[in-house]
What we know:
It is built from one helix and five strands, in the order ββββαβ. The chain is mostly beta strands.
Amino acid sequence: MALTINITSEGKSSVQTPFGVVDNGVQQISFAAYVKVDSIIGNKNEVQAKVSFSGENQHFNKTYQVPVTVEHGAPNFIKQVYVHLKTLSEFENAVDC
């Protein structure tokens, strides 16, 4: 299981020159990312999930604290992480893949 999502972010950029740092203004990037759970560690109540985001020229990781359950019939921990991620506003338009 994995997700895909379009990510848009902006921030200030600067360039180091021999004359000092030159402000390069506000830059915006937008890319389609493949999102997958790389690892989980935790206990029967909560896991810490390391999630990777990969695009054409971008790659970064982010860690999420996710409540889980081990009740009879509950999905496995990894599936529970994906279900939880899709409840977060940053994954509002995420699609299963």
